[in-house]
Design a protein that fits this description.
Number of domains: 2
Largest sheet: 5 strands, parallel
Order of helices and strands: HHEHEHEHEHEHHHHEHEEHHEEHEE
Low-confidence stretches: none
Strand order of the largest sheet: 2-1-3-4-5
CATH class of the largest domain: Alpha Beta
Strand content: 15-25%
Distance between the termini: 41 Å
Radius of gyration: 29 Å
CATH topology of the largest domain: Rossmann fold
Structural class: alpha/beta
Mean pLDDT: 91
Number of strands: 12
Number of helices: 14
Amino acid sequence: MKYIKEAQRVIREEAAALEMLAESLGETFEKTVDCLLHIPGRIAVTGMGKSGHIARKIAATLASTGSPAYFIHPAEASHGDLGMMTSDDAVIAISNSGNTAELNDIILFAAQKALPLIGITKNANSFLARHCDYLLLQPQLHEACPLDCAPTTSTTIQLVIGDALAMCLLSARGFSREDFRMYHPGGALGHTLALVKDVMHTGDAIPLIGPEAPMIDVLAEMTRKGFGCVGVVEHGRLAGIVTDGDLRRHMCSNVMELTASQLMTRNPVCVGLDAVTAKAKELMERKKISSLFVLDKQGNTAGIITRLDV
């Protein structure tokens, strides 16, 4: 427990700084979001040192949530990368002091090209503050570093301002879970946001049988398809389901003399085509079932998914 007290101090100081930031937001923030929402081009985000790392993350967050953005390194910008910027773009420049020399060329370029410039700094009298169109001023606070040197509180504030801008833009654009999935197709996140219709088993793979089918046919279909269940289709709709558990529970009775409709569970738990796989997984876990039939908007059986698919 040697370091807990110091860690708690840092966290609490930074949390208090974020509360101050939230209270300080005003009309300029509103105008900044409107500006970024209506530019025809992309958002160039720049910063040097630790602010540069924050700028990279902000650009990545913007780009992945519906606001095309890119990071431009201020030193490289002075050696040709200014050519990345177009007259349709806007610039977010981040500097705690506001007087970072490496940013000057980007700031002046934005002014010459009449690009909207958003400044994030805590120095209202700085070079950046004097030249930007929209000034998002950071609260005047010491760093959480005990030496008041290492960027800690200041970079946390910068990061959260970027997140706030990105989320406001996401909401204003009506950016949906489906849009998010399109931009994040890889990895666990993309799989969680995939739609049921993208992973379900379809066509001849779906275990289906008629209501009057004898139990020997139910067993054959269940074994052949390998899902541990069969759907019972009545008048073209899924009327019920027979599982291997149903068969085990009736094994001592006259189960083989029954038809599918006599043994089935009516109104089984199902899921829609456009449900995300995360919802289907949660449903299967909550209901303690291993498979779900998928229905289209007309209520027809479109597929089946299992826990292994989600």
